[in-house]
UniProtKB/TrEMBL annotation:
Swiss-Prot/TrEMBL GO biological process terms: DNA damage response
Enzyme class: hydrolase
Reactions it catalyzes: beta-D-fructose 1-phosphate + H2O = D-fructose + phosphate; beta-D-fructose 6-phosphate = dihydroxyacetone + D-glyceraldehyde 3-phosphate
Family note: Belongs to the damage-control phosphatase family. Sugar phosphate phosphatase III subfamily.
A Pfam family per the record: ARMT1-like_dom
Domain-level remarks: Subfamily III proteins have a conserved RTxK motif about 40-50 residues from the C-terminus; the threonine may be replaced by serine or cysteine.
Organism listed in the record: Pisolithus tinctorius Marx 270
Domain annotation Damage-control phosphatase ARMT1-like metal-binding: ranges: 26-373
Protein name: Sugar phosphate phosphatase
Cofactor: Mn(2+); Ni(2+)
């Protein structure tokens, strides 16, 4: 890599997308873009993690080994304070459930709190924060109400009102199932906040009856959620010894147990589902670790695209590849380019909510004057994770 060598072919390892990666690699070789210094960033990053997967896949005893598992678990252990705080908030919501579900104004306020919790929970990206001390991570995850209010000024694109209008319209949707899909990003605390948001949608609002979670099929970008991570998180939250006992009270421990037991019940009943366990789910899930931008979903993963087109809301989490690059085609758009335009051929395929904190250069949907002021104030605003984007694009009405 340091000497700008050519990217080698992915070996035949019995895993999916070997030919697809190697075909893209051959195309890059034809135009002299197949060495580490010049290969397109999006392909290079995806290729690297696919190659690492291949190394383990070809072994006898290490085929399912996750080299990042320990780091993911350690980061989650350092999230205890925020986890117990949120569990208590959810307990308080449960006591108000009957009144809340019939009060759209209160639900609107709570929805925005949940969106912000999920947005800033996304600050816990191990590939970004891997060298921070536990106290720094805890500070980054401060999800109290005061912190939420203070952080609003750091949301550079805020489509929460448009999102709420869309969700309210689901009350009149025809059909027995109103589904929300989460395309997951980071394991640990961020996955926890995703589960909390999903719980809120199906438990405390009348708008959703089912949530499907989409993981990555193998270790990806250090901290992304695999199926094993998903179930390990639920298991860890059920353990009385996973978090440091000094961070909890008897009440907060009870609140967490109460919430997680509900999640387990939802998993058993199919209210919560992992995409890999649904019919055809393994094949559909392969796309998330493929070599293409999400622009090409309809062509490269048509079954997945058709499934998501039936969803009432698709929430795509993440930074780097999974939002700022893959959703927008890995194109260097002007910062003021409308989000829907930057989605390219994916725009209008399904109602899409993108939640990201800025950790890469690709940013869209921000007024040019705002970007200019930030350039003067903070040259690293695109990459330092301090600012966030809440971007919503509705489904297009197609004939």
């Amino acid at each position: 890599m340091e000497s700008d060598q050519e990217l080698e072919k992915i070996p035949e390892d019995g895993e999916f997308y070997v030919d697809e990666y190697n075909l893209e690699l051959a195309k890059l070789a034809q135009i002299g873009k197949n060495t580490w210094f010049v290969v397109p960033w999006l392909f290079a990053e995806s290729y690297l993690y696919r190659l690492i997967r291949s190394f383990f896949k070809q072994t006898t005893r290490w085929t399912e080994f996750d080299p990042f598992r320990k780091k993911k678990e350690e980061a989650f252990r350092n999230s205890a304070t925020a986890v117990y705080y949120i569990a208590t908030i959810m307990h308080e919501l449960e006591s108000e459930k009957d009144r809340l579900i019939n009060d759209p104004d209160k639900l609107s306020v709570l929805l925005k709190e949940m969106v912000q919790m999920c947005l800033w929970g996304n600050a816990t990206d191990l590939s970004f924060l891997i060298h921070l001390a536990p106290s720094d991570i805890e500070q980054f995850q401060n999800v109290g109400r005061d912190a939420q209010q203070a952080r609003k000024e750091f949301i550079l694109k805020d489509d929460q009102e448009n999102l709420w209008e869309h969700i309210r319209s689901l009350e009149h949707q025809v059909g027995p199932v109103t589904r929300c899909d989460f395309v997951l990003d980071n394991a640990g605390f961020e996955l926890f906040t995703d589960l909390v948001f999903a719980d809120f949608l199906v438990t405390h609002t009348p708008y959703f009856s089912k949530v499907v979670f989409h993981p990555k099929l193998f270790p990806w970008f250090v901290s992304d959620v695999t199926p094993a991570d998903f179930y390990k998180t639920v298991e860890s939250l059920s353990s009385s010894t996973f978090f440091n006992a000094t961070t909890m009270t008897t009440e907060s421990a009870h609140h967490l147990k109460e919430m997680v037991e509900r999640w387990k019940r939802y998993l058993q009943e199919g209210v919560f589902s992992l995409s890999t366990e649904l019919e055809g789910g393994y094949k559909k899930t392969q796309f998330w670790t493929g070599p293409w931008p999400y622009w090409y979903m309809e062509d490269k993963a048509n079954e997945l695209w058709r499934s998501l087109s039936e969803s009432s809301l698709v929430i795509i989490k993440g930074d780097l590849k999974f939002v700022s690059r893959s959703l927008t085609g890995d194109v260097k758009w002007p910062v003021s380019m409308p989000f829907a335009t930057a989605l390219g051929p994916l725009a209008g395929s399904f109602p899409l909510l993108s939640l990201r904190t800025n950790k890469s250069d690709v940013v869209v949907g921000v007024p040019q004057d705002v970007a200019d002021r930030l350039d003067e104030k903070d040259k690293r605003w695109r990459v330092n994770g301090k600012y966030g984007l809440v971007s919503f694009a509705p489904k297009a009405h197609r004939n």
